[in-house]
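Lesson 9: reading folded outputs for more than one chain in a single document. The general rule is that every protein is listed as its sequence immediately followed by its C-alpha cells, and records are never interleaved. Here is the first one.
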Amino acid sequence: MTPRRPTTTTTSSSLASHLSARSLPASLPRDVLSFLTHYPSSRPDSKKTANLRFYRNEAPALPRPATCDELQRELRGNWDELERRHDFVQWLFPIREQGVNWEAQPLEVHEVGALRADPEAMARLLESYRIMLAFYGLRLVDPRTGELSLADDVPAPAQASFLQRFANLERHAHNFLRVTRILKCLGEFGLTQHPPSLLLFILHLQSRSSTPLGGPFLTSPSLVRSFDGYWRHCVRDDGEREFVRRKGDEVRAGGEWTAEECREWVRRRAEEREREAHGAREGE
C-alpha cells in the first residue's frame, strides 16, 4: 500500500535548496522529502492548538470524544480495536500532514515546542509508542536508547503473542502507513533515538540472525517494500539514516545483523547523542 501524499505541498525551489544542501536524493517519496527537510513550505498557524490540548489532556480527540488518557486506556492491549479503528493514530502521533481523520489537526511547529517542554505530555507520547509497539509484537526496553525486544511473554497462538502480532502487521497493510507516521512523529518531537532503533531491530528480525528465534520474520514482499521505500528514510539525522540504509542493503543481500550488534549500536549512539548535547550546552 502506498502512503498518502501530504496535503501540504513543498515548492520546487525551496525543496531543491534543501536537497542540495544535504545530498538528499530527489527520488525519495515527496512526503518523506518534506519530512526530512522540515516542511519548508508549510505555513504555521499559531491559533491551532488541538494537538497541544489533546496531549495535555485538556481537549478530546475527535470524532469519538476521548481525552488522551482515556483513549490510551481504551486502546491498550485491545488488539481488535487497534486494528479496526482508523481515527486514533492521527491524534496519538500527530505530524505536519493531513491524515484520513479529517477531524484531527495536522501538527503545528509551535505545538512541538510547547509539548516538548511539558514532561507529562511527552510521557503520554511515549506511552502511545509503547501501545503501538505492543500491537506490533515489540517491547520498549530502554526509553533512553530506544532499545527494543520481542514481546515474548505470551506464547502463540494467543492473540497477544508476537507471532500473531507479526502476522497481523503483515496481513493488514494500512499498518505500514501507521509505522511511517509513527517514525515521523517521533522525529518531530525530538525522540530521535527511537526511529533508528525500531528500524534496526526490524532488520535484525528480518535477517538470518533471527533463525534461533524461529525467524526470519516480517519478510512479506509488501512489508519489505514499505521498509525499503519509506520507513528507512524517515530518520532525520543523515548519518543515522545512511547507517540504516546500508544495514538494510546488507540484510537484503543475506547478511547477518544480530540482536547484540543492534543493542550495542543503539547504546553507543545514545552515549554519542548525550555527549553532543552536553557539548552544545557548554558552547551556549
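And here is the second record, again sequence then C-alpha cells.
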Amino acid sequence: MVESKYRIKITPKANDDLDEIYSYIAEELFNEDAAENLIDKIENNIIRLRDFPLSCSLDEDDVLRSKGYRKLVVENYIAFYIVDEIEKQVVIMRVLYGRQKYQDII
C-alpha cells in the first residue's frame, strides 16, 4: 500500500519571509543569482516534505516543540513547519535567518 502524499501550505507570513530573503540577497547584497538559487533550494526542500513530513526534528525550544514545530534547515535559514496528520498537510509557518532569536518572532 502506498502512503498518500501530504499537501504543502505556505502561510502568508512564510511567503513574506521568502520575499524578504530574496530581496535582501538580490538588492542589498547585489547578487540576484544567489537569491534565486537559495529560494529554489528552500522551495525544493519544502517540496520534499510532501513525501517525508516527519523527516525534520522538532524544535529545541520547549514552547515551539509543544506546538509541534519542526525545523527544516537550508543553508543559514530555517523553515518552521507543523504537520497536520489529520488533514495530511504540512504547514510552513515561517522561514527565518537561523542566527536570529527566532523564538520571539514565531
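What the second record shows: The mean pLDDT is 95.
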